[in-house]
From TrEMBL:
Annotated protein name in UniProt: Cupin type-2 domain-containing protein
Biological source species: Nocardioides luteus
Domain Cupin type-2: 39-104
Domain of life: Bacteria
Length: 153
């Protein structure tokens, strides 16, 4: 594995319905893999609760958010952290104008999901208006909306 340095503002942008996800790093070695994203999320309708095959950490840098994990709300302030376990329904909602956070996820699949989602689902439409595209992308990546069975790949 080699050293990676990403300057502020750099990274691949994935505009999605719940914010701009910027890929900062993908790390894979003999001990496992993880990916790091910087997410800037506006106040907007939240993404539907969904079940991912990877675990994730939301570490809030700016703003405020409410994270929902398995139906339990967590009010998150800057410096706060919430773990989204794999296989558990989760989402977040911005409180106020916007929020910025780090999302660190296990494995090496979330970046491919974000890339596919950002090109397949229009970020400027409410989730209800894009449901067919959302379901298509989630099925391809083993993600399920809460209340449906998680898919495996």
């Amino acid at each position: 594995m080699s050293t990676t340095y990403v300057r502020p503002g750099e990274g691949r942008h994935y505009p999605m319905i719940d914010g701009d996800h910027v890929a900062k790093a993908a790390v894979k070695d003999d001990l496992g893999a993880f990916e790091v994203f910087e997410v800037t999320a506006p106040a907007a309708p939240m993404a539907p609760p969904h079940v991912s095959p990877w675990s994730g950490v939301l570490y809030l840098l700016e703003g405020r958010a409410t994270a929902y994990v398995d139906g339990t709300p967590y009010d998150v302030e800057p410096g706060g952290l919430v773990v989204f376990p794999a296989g558990v329904p989760a989402t977040f909602e911005v409180v106020g104008d916007s929020a910025r956070f780090l999302a660190i996820v296990t494995g090496d699949r979330a970046g491919r999901f974000f890339a596919d989602f950002s090109t397949s689902v229009r970020a400027d439409l409410p989730p209800a208006d894009s449901m067919a595209a959302i379901l298509s992308v989630t099925e391809r990546h083993g993600v399920a909306l809460a209340g449906t069975q998680p898919l495996t790949n």
